[in-house]
Amino acid sequence: MTLKEKIESNRFIVCGEIGPPKSCDGNVIREKSKYFKDVVDAVNITDNQTALVSLSSIASAKILLEEGIEPIMQMTCRDRNRIAIQSDLLGAAALGICNLLCLTGDHQKFGDQPEAKGVFDLDSIQLIATVAKMNSGYFLSGQEMKKAPDFLIGAAANPFAEPFEMRLIRLHKKVEAGARFIQTQPVFNMDIFTRWMERVVEMRLHEKCAIFVGVMPVKSEKVLLHMKKEVPGVNINDEYIDRMKVARDPKEEGIKIAVEMIHTLQKIKGVRGVHLMPVMWESITPVIVKEAGLDVLE
Amino acid sequence: MSLDFITYGKPPISPRERKLSRFMLFFEDAVKVPLFGCQHCGECILSSTAFICSQRCPKRIRNGPCGGTGEGGTCEVYPERKCVWYRIYNRSKLLNRISSLYQIKRIHNWNLEGTSAWLNVFKKRIEAPVWFVRNDKQKVKDIVSGDTQRKN
To answer: For residue B2, what pLDDT is reported?
Structure first.
């Protein structure tokens, strides 16, 4: 079953995430993919996350396909103009990649090469519209193509950044442009998330797109403090920091928090799945899926 | 798809028009640069962003803030600045122009970069500005419930 069919079949979906290596060693992805095989429904492949050069997301997604895992390819607008984006999309479709997550992309300032020129020819909403147009058989120029791709279009949403109401407007635009699933930033503040989700349900956006909520298991208190300080647009409740601080085994506590969070999320109306994103800790995904009892949902 | 997301370069800009555009830019800049911090994109959307230039965003996003807006609405790239979209949202609320934020903005036509937006409006390359938004709250309700078939 493909992700598209799974979304239509109304079951709870689990996505994983792999960051491609900063080298040309494709075996790293093959190694990591073992943790995800038959555990999750689809795996995100990041596209030069935080503007650090890494193996291209198209190539990594192809490797995952060969390993029998369904990839969700991320596509950012930071590095490509509209010509390159359309050409890359055609290439991805030709390789059999059919899930796409459209992002604007982190600013190049956060990477190791802040001198680079950021392209930002399109933004995420315009990228979604571009893919939707290509799905219908036309290039941006209006020219018809012989064989149209069939991408399942996804988009990101951040319920935790200000201004909160504007986030919903943007979500509305993304859904209107053609996004069929939404992956949110990792949740570390349940209050804000519940409020956001209530508004989403009120606007009836959850009927038009499947919402997968980001869950990020952390290894230690240090990670949380770093994220709170350095990563923009993340809101971390002090409760989690305190819990990690007093825990005898921080890793165990991190897993516990993630599992608890998944159980809470399953009860919230409109949540269609979770997106597990343990950064640099991919091996933990199967453990969490098992502990949360998501493996018996099949 | 009913929505067309791109501004085409039609009619093309003739050399004579470029000269005229430069002449008009003299007056346009005198107003737009000191008041709005105009970035000369040539495809002005000031009227739907509550008269704050969205092109001052480091990512030049035309469709709303990226996910990195910090606490109190700071820009993620330049933390000493306020996110332009944070300001746009607040002023839209103040001026009752929220419904215009729901519009999906077209993909920028780079041929228009550095030309006079006023001339482009006159030549019907880009949309004319909307000066008054009436019944903003009702419009937002209609958009959210999907009652109206909106034109982009």
So the answer is: 44
Interface test with A, best of B49, B52, B61 (most A CBs within 10 A): B61
Are A232 and B60 within 8 A, CB to CB?
Answer: no
Report if residue B9 sits inside a domain.
no
Whether A54 contacts chain B with CB within 8 A = no
CA distance A188 to B60: 29
pLDDT digits (tens, 9 = 90+) for B49-65: 999 999 999 999 999 89
What residue spans define the domains of chain A?
3-297
The whole-angstrom distance between residue B150's C-alpha and the CA centroid of its chain comes to 18
pLDDT tens digits, B6-38: 766 666 788 998 999 999 999 999 999 999 999
Contact A132 B1 (CB under 8 A): yes
Query: Using the beta-carbon criterion (under 8 Å), do B59 and A104 form an inter-chain contact?
Result: yes
Nearest neighbour of A185 by CB, restricted to B65, B67, B85: B67
Give yes or no for B63 touching A (CB within 8 A).
yes
Tokens linked to A24: 């040309």
The rounded distance, in Å, linking the Cα atoms of A285 and A255 is: 10
SS3 category, A290: helix
The correct CATH number of A3-297 out of 3.20.20.220, 3.50.50.60, 3.40.50.300, 3.40.50.720 is: 3.20.20.220
Q: What ipTM was assigned to the predicted interfaces of this complex? A: 0.91
